[in-house]
TrEMBL record:
The lineage of its organism: Bacteria, Pseudomonadati, Bacteroidota, Bacteroidia, Bacteroidales. Signal peptide: none annotated. One of its GO terms (molecular function) is pantoate-beta-alanine ligase activity. Belongs to the pantothenate synthetase family. (R)-pantoate binds at Q54, Q146. Pathway: Cofactor biosynthesis; (R)-pantothenate biosynthesis; (R)-pantothenate from (R)-pantoate and beta-alanine: step 1/1. GO terms for cellular component: cytosol. This is Pantothenate synthetase. It comes from Candidatus Rikenella faecigallinarum. Catalyzes the condensation of pantoate with beta-alanine in an ATP-dependent reaction via a pantoyl-adenylate intermediate. The gene is panC. It is an enzyme of class 6 (ligase). GO terms for biological process: pantothenate biosynthetic process.
Length: 274
């Protein structure tokens, strides 16, 4: 495995190039993306870069976990060929002033609650795509809105990159794997699986029995019944357009339920198909 700090060192790729962009603090979710990439590509490139332009909260950026040494060991064991772990100056030699139009996909949920977040994601992902020039790139469905936005961006920019979405990886108690989980206090870690438990039960029972608006309220109330959790939003939206749904619609799987929940100072997101 070759560790590259400079874009110019990323050379000599062979065959189909697969790319897994990450912000480090790697966990089983990232490793499932790497595994999928390894299975379907000849060269596997992983980036580790905590992108400052996508953090709307300076404290969140400051506290974001950084575990490079452990990350490199995991990536080596996973059979990665190249790790790109650049400095901020390497990725942004000049400040990036580009403003993206994501066709409204960024006006709801994370976009509405984290102003500028997706513009920063667009900046870094397009910049990394430009450096790595992958044939295929892998993203997790935990950040379902991010995945939709990246697909849209690739289409808009006409990039010849296949975007592959990979299923959410959960701990055995149901908590979606996230780098932020390692920042939870033991009490909040114990409370956090309640989020998925509520979502699972809700999607099985609420569709068709109450209105969509009522379902969102019920889900928020049930999550907040745990005193260590506080819902920021619950949204039920079309899986392809991310438009908030007003009715339940026809097809199973055409809607998804999305939540953002505060567990103390840590903000967690999750989503399930309905
Ligand atoms: O999902 C993430 O970890 C980040 O948003 C990404 C895609 C690596 C861009 O910084």
């Amino acid at each position: 495995m070759k560790l590259c700090r400079r874009a110019a060192e990323l050379a000599g790729f062979r065959g189909t190039v697969g790319f897994v962009p990450t912000m480090g603090a790697l966990h089983a979710g990232h490793l499932s993306l790497v595994e999928q990439c390894r299975k379907t590509c000849d060269t596997v490139v992983v980036s580790i870069f905590v992108n400052p332009t996508q953090f709307n909260d300076p404290n969140d950026l400051k506290n974001y976990p950084r575990t490079e040494e452990a990350d490199l060991k995991l990536l080596e064991a996973a059979g990665v060929d190249y790790v790109f772990a650049p400095s901020v100056e390497e990725v942004y030699p000049e400040p990036d002033t580009r403003v993206f139009d994501f066709g409204g996909l960024d006006s709801v949920m994370e976009g509405a609650h984290r102003p500028g977040h997706f513009n920063g994601v667009g900046q870094v992902v397009s910049r990394l795509f430009d450096i790595v020039k992958p044939n295929r790139a892998f993203f997790g469905e935990k950040d379902f809105q991010q995945l939709a936005i990246i697909r849209y961006m690739v289409q808009q920019l006409g990039l010849p990159i296949e975007i592959v979405g990979c299923p959410i990886v959960r701990d055995s108690d149901g908590l979606a794997r996230s780098s932020r989980n390692m920042l939870l206090t033991p009490e909040h870690r114990q409370a956090a699986p309640h989020i998925y438990a509520v979502l699972r039960e809700a999607v099985d029972t609420l569709r068709g029995t109450v209105t969509v608006a009522e379902a969102k309220q019920i889900i928020a109330r049930r999550i907040d019944a745990n005193p260590l959790l506080k819902t920021e939003y619950v949204e039920i939206a079309e899986a392809d357009t991310l438009k908030p749904a007003e009715t339940w619609g026809e097809k199973i799987g055409d809607l998804r339920c999305f939540v953002a929940v505060h567990a103390g100072p840590i903000r967690l997101i999750d989503n399930v198909a309905i």
